[in-house]
Structures are given as C-alpha cells and as structure tokens.
Amino acid sequence: MRYLHTMVRVTDLEKSLAFYRDALGLEVLRTKEVPSGRFTLVFLAAPGDSQAQVELTYNWDPEVLEGGRNFGHLAYAVDNIYATCERLQAHGVTIQRPPRDGYMAFVRSPDNISVELLQAGDPLPVAEPWASMPNVGKW
Amino acid sequence: MRYLHTMVRVTDLEKSLAFYRDALGLEVLRTKEVPSGRFTLVFLAAPGDSQAQVELTYNWDPEVLEGGRNFGHLAYAVDNIYATCERLQAHGVTIQRPPRDGYMAFVRSPDNISVELLQAGDPLPVAEPWASMPNVGKW
Q1: How high is the mean pLDDT of chain A?
Q2: Using alpha carbons only, how large is chain B's radius of gyration in Å?
Q3: What are phi and psi of B137, to 5 degrees?
Q4: Nearest-CA distance from B128 to chain A in Å?
Q5: Domains plus CATH for chain A?
C-alpha cells in the first residue's frame, strides 16, 4: 500500500500553477487533458519527492468551489521557510500565518486550500520582518 | 522540499481509527494529545510508506465538519483492490464506487473525506460481486 496523491479542484489553472508551481515551488510531473470529460489533471510534487503528489483537477465547465471544514491542509517541509515565504509574497500570495518562530507558516491557494509550511530540521533564528508580522485572516 | 501530510479534521476519533486504521489499513505512527489546546493529533501512513502521512485532527470541543468542493480526495495504491474493499465492507464501510474494472474504487471516511483506491500495477481480472455492483451516492 502506498500514498499516491491528494486531489484538489481548481477553478483557474493558470492562477493555480502560479501558486503551486511558481510560488510554492512544486514541480509539474505530468498533465493530462481529457477533452471528452472536459477536464484537465495536473500532477505536481516537491522537487526530488515525486512519490507524494498533489493532483489539481480543473473542470472546464465553471463551478463554485466552496471550502469545507473536514479537509484541513497540505503540509510541506521546506529548506528555508523565510526564502519560501519571500517567494510566495513575490507572487502576490498573502502569508496568513507568518513564520514568526522561524518554523511554521500558512498560506492559501487561489481556491482556499490551506498549505502549511514547516522548516525542515531546527527552526531558523527568529528574524524580522517575520517576527513582528501579524496574522491575516484564517488558514 | 518534501511532502509531509494531508490534514483532515475528524469528529469521532474511534470511528475515524476504525476507518483509517482498521478498515483502510493505514498504520498509526504517532499520537499527540494536547490537553491545553483541547485537541488530539494522530499521524497515519501506509505500511512501509511512512514518509507520506495523513494527520487526523480531533478537536475535543464538538464542531460540525461540512465538506467542501475544493478538496477532492486522498489516493492510495493497494496490493489487491478486491481484498481492500472486502476489508472495508467488513468494517461497515460502503463501497461508493465499486472496483468493477479491477482497478479503481472510492469510499468515504466517517467525516465524508473521499478516498480513492487504485490497484497497484495492472488491473485485476474483472470479477463478481464487484463487476455488477452499482455505484452508491457520490464520492
């Protein structure tokens, strides 16, 4: 038995790739367009960690994707949580829970999927501007 | 960068362990009770695949956990999809999308988290009772 992926639905593939690929730093492993079913699947994973994937499902016909409380978040360990948060900010992503402790941050995808970022290994030294950055909303 | 886990919230820890551990076949890696925060975390993974985890968050104070469309499902490859579905049924789990094709099935957790099961490798030969079993609800 083996974990394959977590699937999340997305309403805008370009915005979602800007988040998951460009801002978060995942790599696209493969894309599958299914015109007969009017959907596109994109599988991504952390670089060098292709076993554990996230699958984006983009249905070509518009739908409203509300969030729910039973799903919590996706979590990734990152090499430098400050660098990751800077990259996310540079792509216009709000850091909802800044890494004030040098260890943990939360952001949200364009479709409100919560993503937890944890510093790999020991926390980084506490540093500005993160240390005094307030939370924004919920995550 | 490395995938850590997908977190889902649960309203009943015993029912959830009966599903994720006993029926689905995941292993409990660790449990963390946090009385000060009034929550319990349980981390599970497929046997032999402990890198990719699912985290159950059980908040001690009752809450309603509705589902949402932005989250899709968790997916696992299994060694024998018929045996897995039999074990799930033996634990009272409805097979919402039976493996009619010897390849794919869907079930739901007690909190309506959709779980996709895919036969590892080639599909199994089509076989009853699965081949003629209808879908139940949505997944």
Answers
A1: 95
A2: 16
A3: 60, -150
A4: 23
A5: 5-61+71-119 (3.10.180.10)
The list of chain A residues with pLDDT below 50 reads none
pLDDT in tens, B58-109: 999 988 888 888 999 999 999 999 999 999 999 999 999 999 999 999 999 9
Strand partners, B76: A3, B117
Chain-chain contact of A46 with B9 (C-beta, under 8 angstroms): no
Q: Is B51 on the interface with A (CB under 8 A)?
A: yes
pLDDT in tens, B8-37: 999 999 999 999 999 999 999 999 999 999
In sequence order, which residues have a C-beta less than 8 Å from that of residue A30 and are 6 or more positions away? Answer: A42, A43
Rounded (5°) CA angle A54-A37-A70: 40
What ipTM did this prediction achieve? 0.91
SS3 A59: strand
- The rounded distance, in Å, linking the Cα atoms of B26 and B22 is 7
Closest Cβ–Cβ partner in B4, B111, B120 for A70: B111
Is the bond into A99 cis (omega within 30 degrees of 0)? Answer: no
* Predicted model pTM: 0.92
Q: Given CB atoms, is B74 within the 8 Å cutoff of chain A?
A: yes
Collapse the DSSP code of B117 into the 3-class scheme (helix H, G, I; strand E, B; otherwise coil) and give the result.
strand
Å between B76 CA and nearest CA of chain A: 5
Partners of B118 in the β-ladder: B77, B104
